[in-house]
Write a structure and sequence with these properties.
The chain has 18 helices and no strands. It has one domain: Up-down Bundle (Growth Hormone, Chain: A), CATH 1.20.1250.20. The chain is mainly alpha-helical and about 475 residues long. Keywords: Membrane, Nitrate assimilation, Transmembrane, Transmembrane helix. This is MFS transporter. Belongs to the major facilitator superfamily. Nitrate/nitrite porter (TC 2.A.1.8) family. GO terms for molecular function: nitrate transmembrane transporter activity.
Length: about 475
């Protein structure tokens, strides 16, 4: 059976370094498999977005119908993200991710069979559940890595996974072109292309079940059955969720995540169509331009996590929130510049600028997340993640209410700049800081000990 036994043996404490080219430990296997699974999920989530000009023509969609489709693609994610965090606490990320991949593949395949706007809208709504994969990704690395590198680990796997959105923007038009070159009709070509992300999700489900484990000590369900307390709490479920709800820091970080990740999702949905409609680019060229924004996730989100870990080494938790404030402010300014760009070159330059700040802010947000409440980790991760999708839905409704996308982008820029104040409102008590500092010191001491005992220098990447 899929979950008949743990996939690997327990190996002890959290990892205090990131050995990027190592697959020998459960921590690094979880690191690599979870970002790859998230990449596949993100690719599938936005595989239809760059094909919307084709789909719009086939179904004769209006502006409001396209806006409804974009809103639907992120709306249900809010609910599923709220549920998925406590499920990780209760059943473990391995089981939760595997089932999300298997079930989430169904609406991806379903899009290929849509014959009307209503059916397409329904499957696009269901596909939004795939976005909850982010919460599992962040949960899994949070329980696998120590405080000195957890920000870097979270941001890196999140960024590399988010790059799946950019890959979808660039690659899906090419997949369609390849199918069309075989002589099939255009309406059939984009439907065949949707099988690519669907099959990839099914394959990743079996990879996740086979090559990962829940924690450094082993399987969460087995550990709890043996009476071993784990980081997420004794039972998980609704109690963890309610505990997270009572923490004001969760809501402040949910707001900041709505203003960075929400904007990221919104841009993924509209970018290709924006370049087609505003600058007259072809679908392939518009997909390439939109893909630049997604490609930034390959390094920018990780950069936000690395910067957060580095500044925390000098200024503690307050340094993490101050960095997040600065990144949010830069994102808001960049969005305003993007809305004013009147040429393709200026638009791409401005998009790259605000995109850099956006992805870094996403990484910096989840570099703070593991320190909010260790006993309610799943609930915290789920609520903050849901905030990102609430932001995306709000941006979709704003776009529907305004006259032009440029006006939407301008208003979004001002809102993001204002939301940066939520970041600096996050404060931690002296007792909380002291407890976290002890954990950090212990991780650093263990790292120094391991380095002293190592027979030869280990090949590292600079991420740790």
């Amino acid at each position: 059976m899929l979950f008949s036994s743990p996939t690997v043996n327990a190996t002890g404490p959290k990892a205090n370094r990131i050995d990027l080219f190592s697959f020998s430990t459960p921590q690094m296997r979880a690191f690599h498999v979870t970002w790859l699974a998230f990449f596949v999920c993100f690719f599938a989530w936005f595989a239809a977005a760059p094909l919307m000009p084709l789909i719009r023509a086939e179904f004769g969609l209006t502006k409001d119908q396209i806006a409804n489709i974009n809103i639907a693609s992120v709306a249900v994610t809010i609910l599923v993200r709220l549920i998925i965090g406590p499920l990780c606490d209760k059943y473990g990320p391995r089981r939760t991710y595997t089932w999300l991949l298997l079930v989430g593949a169904l609406p991806v395949f379903g899009l290929a069979f849509a014959k009307s706007y209503e059916v397409f809208l329904f499957f696009r709504l269901c596909i939004g559940a795939i976005g909850a994969s982010f919460v599992i990704t962040q949960y899994h690395t949070s329980v696998m890595f120590a405080p000195n590198v957890v920000g870097t680990a979270n941001a890196t796997v999140g960024g590399w996974g988010n790059a799946g959105g950019g890959a979808a923007q660039s690659l899906m038009p090419l997949v369609v072109a390849a199918v069309l070159s075989l002589g099939v009709e255009q309406a059939f070509g984009w439907r065949v292309a949707m099988f690519v992300p669907g099959v990839a999700m099914v394959v990743m489900a079996f990879v996740y079940a086979r090559y990962t484990q829940d924690t450094p000590q082993g399987d969460i369900v087995d550990l709890r059955a043996r009476g071993i307390q784990i980081e997420g709490g004794k039972k998980g479920g609704m109690a963890i969720f309610l505990q997270a709800c009572r923490n004001y820091r969760v809501w402040m970080l949910a707001a900041t995540y709505g203003a960075c990740f929400g904007v990221e999702i919104f841009i993924h949905n509209i970018a290709a169509s924006y370049y087609v409609d505003r600058f007259g680019l072809s679908i392939a060229n518009a997909g390439f331009a939109a893909g630049i924004f997604g490609a930034l996730a390959l390094f920018a989100r990780a950069l936000g996590g690395i910067a957060s870990d580095r500044i925390a080494a000098r200024r503690g938790l307050d340094g993490r929130t101050l960095l997040l404030f600065g990144l949010m402010l830069g994102e808001g300014i960049g969005l305003v510049l993007f809305s004013k760009a009147d040429s393709v070159a200026l638009a791409i330059g401005a998009m790259a600028l605000f995109g850099l700040f956006t992805h870094m802010a996403c990484g910096a947000t989840y570099a703070v997340m593991p320190f909010v409440d260790r006993k309610a980790l799943g609930g915290v991760a789920g609520l903050i993640g849901a905030g990102g999708n609430i932001g995306a839905v709000a941006a979709g409704f704003l776009n529907k209410a305004t006259d032009t996308p440029q006006q939407t982008l301008l208003i979004l820029g001002l809102i993001v700049a204002g939301t940066s104040l939520c970041a600096i409102s996050v404060r931690f008590s002296a007792q909380h800081k002291s407890a976290e500092q002890k954990l950090l010191d212990a991780a650093l001491a263990m790292r120094r000990t391991e380095t002293d005992l190592a027979p030869a220098p280990r090949a590292t990447t600079g991420l740790a």
